[in-house]
Amino acid sequence: MSSPANDSNLVEIRDVTFRYGARTIVDNLSLDIPRGKVTAIMGGSGCGKTSLLNLIGGRLRPESGQVLVDGLNVPNLNKKDLYALRLRMGMLFQNGALLTDLSVFENVAFPIREHTTLPEPLLRNVVLMKLNTVGLRGARDLMPWELSGGMARRVALARTIVLEPMMILYDEPFTGLDPISMGVIAKLIRDLNQTLGITSIVVSHDVAETALISDYAYLLGGGKILGQGTPQDLQKSTSPHVRQFMDGLPDGPVPYTYPAKNYLDDLLDEGRA
Amino acid sequence: MNLPRMNFFGQLGAGTLAAIERLGRMALFLLEVLGHAGAMVKRFSLVIQQLYSVGVFTLPIVLVSGLFVGMVLGLQLYNTLVKFGAAESLGLVLALSLLRELGPVVTALLFAGRAGSALTAEIGLMKATEQLAGMEMMAVNPVMRVIAPRFLAGVIAMPLLAALFSAIGIYGGQMIGVGLLGVDSGAFWSQMQNGVDFHEDIMNGVIKSFVFGVVVTWIAVFEGYDAVPNSEGVSRATNHTVVYSSLAVLGLDFVMTSLMLGEV
Questions:
Q1: Is residue B141 less than 8 Å (CB to CB) from chain A?
Q2: Are A86 and B133 a contacting pair at CB < 8 A?
Q3: Is residue B5 part of a domain?
């Protein structure tokens, strides 16, 4: 089950194929996530980025290939081992996924209460320290619906780091945020990575913010790697796929129009369909 | 999958297979929930929280309905019984109708509409907003943390609610029969006391409401957990909960009544 993974890589994806029905989402993909770095996985909507995170987190099973996390092949783990591995990884969901019936404090305390028997005074201190890290110690008594999008994501981030994971998976952390909140989240991702030595995988289509904080980036399209390198390398790339994505061009290798039959035929076809 | 072009038999077969597959998933889901029920003994506070939202919030509608059903029964039964000179039996007939049939069945239908639909919508929305996925990624099994306490709460609450429904129904019938229509109070209560059998009548009613509790809550939590995670999916699932559990209650009531009476 475990293989002698390269020590410098925390996650190694090997020849992974994942299909959803007849659609191939991830196509024979191989990539490495180095330990202690911020690795960005960029790509347009529906390119398989989020599926990749779910494959790493064991929420999806690949049709073939290996997903090695810290030497463990995730698809082969039984539920107990998978849950043990998940205790060492955190995932920040796009909308935070806070439990709506619990306050901010209780949301952050949730993983501790579920997995440990920490005495209440100690638990309180741990939760307040994590909330302080994201600057929301004062918001501990608010309910999730009283938070802005950026605050909700920061609370979720505090909850993610409360058990001190080795790795955090960020699913579109910048989507739908105002520029200030975006900057706050970007700073937090970078800071947590440096101060706690957490390996971070940031899935995003936000080129500018992601490039600022990542050490290495993969550009995915159609379930394959279209380009990779440091953000600076990608900026300089001349590959048409990379250029279209980095420059936000409406048409290019990724076509503007959804595949369809000949336009004229289609218009004349009415009534015969 | 080109459903519209499939012939009739193809569609029938596909529909049947899909329905059987779903029933299979439902059965496996129940097994998983029951597997976690033991863990709830240690964390009974989770069940108590749910008992509050499932049971206490359903109480007003159950009590008000029970009172009116009892009052209507009092009027209707008196009208018929008095023709045969048997108005003193009002208490007995009223108690039997409520304990054996109306208590468990009407409570289950009200429970499906009030608590079942709320459970489905809550769990479906938790799924749609990735709260369940979030728990999984925190290494917390949502079936254990979210589903099992709600299921147990439903199963515990239903017989209690049915008992309260019957009790307040009898009180409503007594108000009309004794208070308004002049049935003798002593006869009303003593006939009831003599005629109602603990095992035959009360326990059979309790068994019914326990079974309804299992079925309605099972359907409700499964529909929520299995809902398509968007607004249309959750609304459809909520709708299914009310329709399926009402049909299941009425169908099962017939089956259980025939078994208990031994007539069929």
A1: yes
A2: no
A3: no
- State the pLDDT at residue A5: 46
pLDDT in the model for residue B159 = 96
Q: How far is A97 from chain B (nearest CA, A)?
A: 5
Specify if B55 maps to a domain: yes
What count of residues does chain B have?
A: 264
How many structural domains is chain B composed of? Answer: 1
Instruction: Report yes or no on B15 lying in a domain.
Output: no
Cα–Cα dist A191/A184, whole Å = 10
Within-domain flag for B246: yes
Give the chain A residue whose CA is nearest to the CA of B146: A99
Distance from CA of B109 to the nearest CA of A (A): 27
Q: Which of B134, B140, B145 lies closest to A93 in CB terms?
A: B134
Range of the domain at B82: 21-261
The predicted-structure confidence for B185-196, as pLDDT tens digits, reads as follows 999 999 999 999
**Residue B53: is its pLDDT beyond 80?**
yes
Query: What pLDDT, in 10s, does the model give residues A84-117?
Result: 999 999 999 988 899 998 999 999 999 999 999 9
Model-level pTM? 0.87
* B35 vs A: CB within 8 A: no
Query: CB A59 to CB B130 under 8 A?
Result: no
Give pLDDT, residue A2.
41
